Amino acid sequence: VVYLVLAYATVSLIYFRFRNSYDSESDSFRVEFLLVPVAGLSFLENYAFTPLEILWTFSIYLESVAILPQLFMITKTGEAESITTHYLFFLGLYRALYLANWVWRYHVEGFFDQIAVVSGVVQTIFYCDFFYLYFTRGQQTSHNFDFI
């Protein structure tokens, strides 16, 4: 219930309170380039060919690439506000801590979820360039990024 309320609040804030901050000129990423391959992969690589399993797999795969439009926009504009960079940093840190959780669960419980682990590793790799720039540029009020 808390998750659903927070998700609804986030979407509401995006579409109502912060609607004016949307920059349509910089937002040129084509999400179908993410959705179509992720949907196809979720049908091909899953644990059971059932609707719920395919939807769960789709959500895991989509989460691993969902940051790409934001990173693409930062790369295109070459800068980001401090709040955005901090948000992305902590989102990436969350994923990196998830990897640590999987290592711990494997050693303690013998549990290994190949789909979740591979997707998490892929997502963390996408953050690596951002992490490097985040730490080398320091904590400024506005960040200028030239991605490698």
UniProtKB/TrEMBL annotation:
It is found in: Cytoplasmic vesicle, COPI-coated vesicle membrane; Endoplasmic reticulum membrane; Golgi apparatus membrane. It is a multi-pass membrane protein. It comes from the Eukaryota. GO terms for biological process: protein transport; vesicle-mediated transport. Belongs to the ERD2 family. The keyword Membrane applies. PROSITE patterns: ER_LUMEN_RECEPTOR_2 (PS00952). GO terms for cellular component: COPI-coated vesicle membrane; endoplasmic reticulum membrane; Golgi membrane. Keywords: Cytoplasmic vesicle, Endoplasmic reticulum, ER-Golgi transport, Membrane, Protein transport, Receptor, Transmembrane, Transmembrane helix, Transport. InterPro entries: ER_ret_rcpt (IPR000133). The chain crosses the membrane at residues 54-74, 86-104, 116-135. The keyword Lyase does not apply. This is ER lumen protein-retaining receptor.
